Amino acid sequence: MAVMNIREAINHTLHAEMERDPSIIVLGEDVVGGAGTAGGQEAIGGIWGTTGGLYAKFGAERVIDTPISESAIVGAAAGAALAGKRPVAELMFADFIGVSLDQLWNQMGKFRYMFGGKTKCPAVVRMIYGAGMNAAAQHSQSVYALLTSMPGLKVVMPATPADAKGLLTEALRGDDPVMFMEHKTLYGVKGEVPDGEHRQRFGEARMVREGGDVTIVACGRMVGFSEKVSDKLAGEGIGVDLLDLRTTSPLDEEAILDSVEATGRLVIVDESPPRCSLASDIASIVAARAFTSLKAPPAMVTGPHSPIPFARELERAWVPSPPKIEDAVRQVLAFR
Amino acid sequence: MQLSRDDLLGAYRRMATIRQFEERLHEEIKTGEIAGFTHLYCGQEAAAVGVCDHLTDDDYIVSTHRGHGHCIAKGCDVKGMMKEIYGRRDGLCKGRGGSMHIADLSVGMLGANGIVGAGAPQAVGAAIAAKLDGNGRVAIAFSGDGACNQGTTFEAMNLAVVVKAPAIFVFENNHYSEHTGVDYAVGTNKDIASRAEAFGMKAWRANGCDYFDTYDAMRELLDHVRAGNGPAAIELDTERFYGHFEGDPQRYRGPGELDRLREDRDCLKAFRARVGEAKLLDIAELDAIDAEVAQLIDESVTEARAAPAPDPASVAEDVYVDY
């Protein structure tokens, strides 16, 4: 198995899948970069470096730099998917879904249903999300709860390089619209990635740690934070079941319920504001379906109900952090 | 114009089908049997048919919330459409879409759309797909004068020019976006074609109440686009006989305006006069088509009424291919 980081895993998967399937096209702002400039094309390969080399290998017909027009990018992906292609649209920052939301929500997410199941829309929208780079309120949000609430869309959040490859491959082979969410602080995370074909089914959470005393449910960047906390607590003899959801739609409810039934205690770590969040969604599912297993009220570790601030001190205060996760675990353990 | 007798009879049949489909809906809606919002296309038949008569099932169109005419012109099954509008299980979209969301990908109809201006970027995407395959297909974005003010339309036109996509922006200017006049809502002297030109594409203008004018302009336009010149646009000056939605009392119309439209701007009347005077067809042949179409529409309503409703248990089916 090769060791690579998440950025490399995504780039590697795009190369491999585009080679395999000529119907895959990539489009977005500066996914090539440099068009119309004196310096020339392929100046950037995506501001996150994920689309580098695709232009050289697959050309301008399949790797399309677009103007800054998110509605047109996502709408064109929707139309190309209806016309038989497998478009991969990139939203440079997930916050920009506001500009393109109609095409995600009313259009690609609803085509199949509205058209009586006679249509499929195999589009992947890669979007870069999350806090941690002091990019402030309009470039830092984790919009997965919003997207998870929309029937017709699948929402995918890799936390490891292996999952980045496995989940992106699955997204590109499936026939539904997939919101593929890449946390901007995780691109450098390294790990082993299976060689050759590697597909990770959606809706299958990953048990990162098994401990038996308390269940932590997390996704994206929050998985790593929770892992740190779990390691620390293991030293004190506190065993954590840590679940990495991998996908929030579909959601592996059974894995969550199985673990909670065994531990009786639940902490949900969600990099979102608290209201109508993934945390509140999972808490409601557990309350409805595993109420009698619970030995303590579920704890939700989220940001406050506020936009994400700029200053380092403020952003750190906003993001769910290992100490806050640890506090929440101790709180549910102490509940009698 | 180089249209054979068969072409002319076919064009008339499609226009007459749209007209009778719409006139019948206008009556049936009053019975209360049809749920929801219905936006009638009646009056604009020459636009849809003049555009789509140049296309095959391999070409793509995206439509608007006033989509029945585009569906029929592109070849969607009329009985399936009627059942869909009646919300029946075996409607074209299993009763999930209704009037505003009819689609049939088997004939290149990528969907009517309830969101004004949403279709244009999708047409560009379909055109990008066609360009990549080099198969000569084109993608048409039907938009009204209302949609010409949506940012999506501007984004789509610019993107199409940048990537030289074989996309065609057909603006059907029926002078009303909902209940607001084009003179008020379109800032560029109510001229939509010049907006398309400003995005760097060639634009045509045609009388959308005249089948022949629309057909001829579209032929030139399609030659231009199929030759690889990138996107193009056409503004069709047309008329809407009914309101924005069915039940709209049209208080915004001037005195006598609707009567004058029916008298002077009826594309079917104009077609009949033209082919009659030029002795291209016998009026009796057109009357015979009218009678055949009337029977088809009758049957479609009868069958739609009798068709089974969808099973409530299927309410959440077909959201995903695989979940």
UniProtKB/TrEMBL annotation, chain A:
This is Alpha-ketoacid dehydrogenase subunit beta. GO terms for molecular function: oxidoreductase activity. The keyword Oxidoreductase applies. CDD domains: TPP_PYR_E1-PDHc-beta_like. PANTHER family: ACETOIN:2,6-DICHLOROPHENOLINDOPHENOL OXIDOREDUCTASE SUBUNIT BETA, PYRUVATE DEHYDROGENASE E1 COMPONENT BETA SUBUNIT. It holds the Pfam family Transket_pyr. Coiled coil: none annotated. Keywords: Oxidoreductase. The keyword Oxidoreductase applies. Residues 4-189 form the Transketolase-like pyrimidine-binding domain. SMART domains: Transket_pyr.
Automatic annotation (TrEMBL), chain B:
The keyword Protein biosynthesis does not apply. One of its GO terms (molecular function) is pyruvate dehydrogenase (acetyl-transferring) activity. It comes from the Bacteria. Gene3D superfamilies: 3.40.50.970. GO terms for biological process: pyruvate decarboxylation to acetyl-CoA. Keywords: Oxidoreductase, Thiamine pyrophosphate. Signal peptide: none annotated. SUPFAM superfamilies: Thiamin diphosphate-binding fold (THDP-binding). InterPro entries: DH_E1, PDH_E1_Alpha_Subunit, THDP-binding. Its cofactor is thiamine diphosphate. Residues 13-312 form the Dehydrogenase E1 component domain. It catalyses: N(6)-[(R)-lipoyl]-L-lysyl-[protein] + pyruvate + H(+) = N(6)-[(R)-S(8)-acetyldihydrolipoyl]-L-lysyl-[protein] + CO2. The pyruvate dehydrogenase complex catalyzes the overall conversion of pyruvate to acetyl-CoA and CO(2). It contains multiple copies of three enzymatic components: pyruvate dehydrogenase (E1), dihydrolipoamide acetyltransferase (E2) and lipoamide dehydrogenase (E3). This is ABC transporter substrate-binding protein. It comes from Tardibacter chloracetimidivorans.
